[in-house]
Amino acid sequence: MQKTCRQCGMTKDLARFNKKAEARDGHAPTCKDCRRIKRQSQPGVSMPDMSLENRKLVYNSAIIRMAQRGLTSRKPTEEMLDRVGEM
Length: 87
Prior knowledge:
By secondary structure, this protein is an alpha+beta fold. It contains 3 helices and 4 strands; from the N terminus they run ββββααα. Helices cover 39% and strands 16% of the residues. It starts with a strand and ends with a helix.
């Protein structure tokens, strides 16, 4: 069975499309190749590109989420939160 990619307009085998339960045919509207190209052309923001304040916020949020979920660390949560001031 084949499907036409919404992005590139090429007709390809269904194996070239990711599965998506919400779609009528059970497959994503864009092919894997187009998704890969889009992902590579729009890289995420890396931590060094973020401001110091945003890095601290991200770090603090992660530490707090870990503590709330009961995930343990070698260091106490308070000590890890204190490290943020050293960044």
